[in-house]
Design a protein that fits this description.
By secondary structure, the protein is α/β, with parallel strands linked by helices. It has five helices and eight strands; from the N terminus they run E-H-E-H-E-E-H-E-H-H-E-E-E. A three-stranded parallel sheet has the order 1-2-3, covered by helices on one side. The protein has a three-stranded parallel sheet with strand order 4-5-8. A two-stranded antiparallel sheet has the order 6-7.
Length: about 190
């Protein structure tokens, strides 16, 4: 089953920080995409822009803040981060953010999750960048935590990297759960 057929990724917000105009351009792009028949909009989940997007000095919105704003400006498109790195997002907090997005968007959220790739971004913000194997282990655990929190009334999970104990995620997703998209590429798991 396909969650969406035609999506637009707002991969860069431009190379100039011109305040509110950056935000308004992104919103205008999302609105035009929805009017043109796109059924999904994604945004990057990074702390700064990479070299292909204008470099670290270029504008980069926090993903779930931007997705919430886009939810208020659109009515039909699915909304997601492409993708949230497990090294930057605690899965319990991520499940809460994506569930909140689902509720405020009337059931249009998708959880996008990945193992992380941008070592320079991690270094710039003082975040550890573990081996590929550990990041893949974290991805497995994060998926378990998120799926449990998005489908069960109460969740307990104890892993090597993440855990939740008798955790509640309320309000609940509009459709009972939230579709999951896992993104990645690169070297094989080691």
């Amino acid at each position: 089953m396909s969650v969406f057929k035609r999506g637009l990724h707002l991969g860069s917000y431009g190379s100039v920080d011109d305040g509110a105009a950056v935000f308004e351009r992104a919103c205008a792009s999302a609105i035009l995409a929805e009017q043109a028949g796109f059924d999904a909009i994604s945004v990057p989940d990074h702390l700064h822009q990479n070299g292909t997007g204008g470099g670290p000095q270029s504008p980069m919105f926090e993903a779930y803040t931007m997705l919430g704003a886009l939810a208020m400006r659109t009515t039909k498109v699915k909304l997601f981060a492409l993708v949230s790195p497990v090294t930057l997002r605690n899965p319990g907090l991520l499940a809460k953010a994506v569930t909140s997005l689902d509720v405020i968007s009337a059931g249009r959220a998708i959880l996008g999750l990945g193992a992380a790739w941008d070592v320079d971004e991690h270094a710039a913000f003082g975040v550890d960048f573990p081996s590929t194997g550990e990041r893949m282990d974290r991805l497995d655990e994060a998926l378990s935590v998120c799926k449990s929190l998005m489908t069960n009334e109460q969740s307990t999970f104890a892993g090597r990297h993440y855990s939740v104990a008798d955790a509640y995620n309320s309000p609940r997703p509009i459709r009972g759960s939230i579709p999951v998209l896992v993104g990645g590429g690169g070297e094989k798991r080691t």
